[in-house]
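Supplementary Text 2. Reproducibility record for the structural model of the 292-residue chain.

All settings were left at their defaults, and a single model was retained for analysis rather than an ensemble. We include the record here because the model underlies the residue-level annotations in Supplementary Table 4.
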Amino acid sequence: MKTQQQTLFSPVSIYGIGLHSGAQVRMTIYPEKENTGIYFVRTDMAPPVVIPAACEYVVNTQLATTLGRDNVTVSTVEHLMAALYALGIDNARVDIDGPEVPVLDGSSASFILLIKEAGIVKQDSSRREIVINRPFSIVDGDRFIKILPASEYEIDFTIEFDHKLLTSQRASYAINQEIFEREISRSRTFTFKKDVDYLRSIGLAKGGSLDNAVVIDDYKVMNPHGLRYKDEFVRHKILDCVGDLALCGVRLRGKVVAMKSGHELNNRLCRGLVSQYLTEPAHLSLAAIGLP
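Retained model, structure tokens:
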């Protein structure tokens, strides 16, 4: 059954720090007309640079998903994209005056609240959807991500680490608004204490803290209030996967099964699905908004 496209009822803004860049940024999400898709505008550039939220514009997947065009980038888009997908936002303009989406608390929860505060309205045009009719997989050694035919969108994710506290976790959820809000949206990004110094040495995690990430040392979770869910780590990987696959630009119907996947494999799956299932781009034409 076809469903209608949706956008925000009114613009809404938020201000915060980027997890990796440490930059303070202001971001405003605007309603957009039907069949436009979601796109970012780097308003601090002269002239402003438009970057579609589409998998073919992904230029870096190191620890986050980064979109880029004409040597201008917007990084760590996955938490926002997950919230937009879960709430059914098909069309939106995201103005941002810096290089990275604000990390906020490291989850999608604040973005969910922000979008619901703006309100959601239906539009006249029907949504496009990729309905998986045969298995499709990306494999890299002992890591893989695949998608199988199913009656609804689901993600079954397994993580494994060589760590005393965090060895293996698995979780499986249908991806819809109710379940995403209740079970997935509050799960935070995480890292190991031993990795923090290295990340900062290569120019990453400059804005990271216990306020916006779960940090694990050799024996315990360092955050004063502990975890939000006992399996918060794998839930956050599901959150990231929703955001990364939202860059297909359409709704998905199929069951994703992932083992130790991350942004890079997620993006390779996304590109493969777009190539196999979409005969024309799902995102806006830059010419449609007056850009070359």
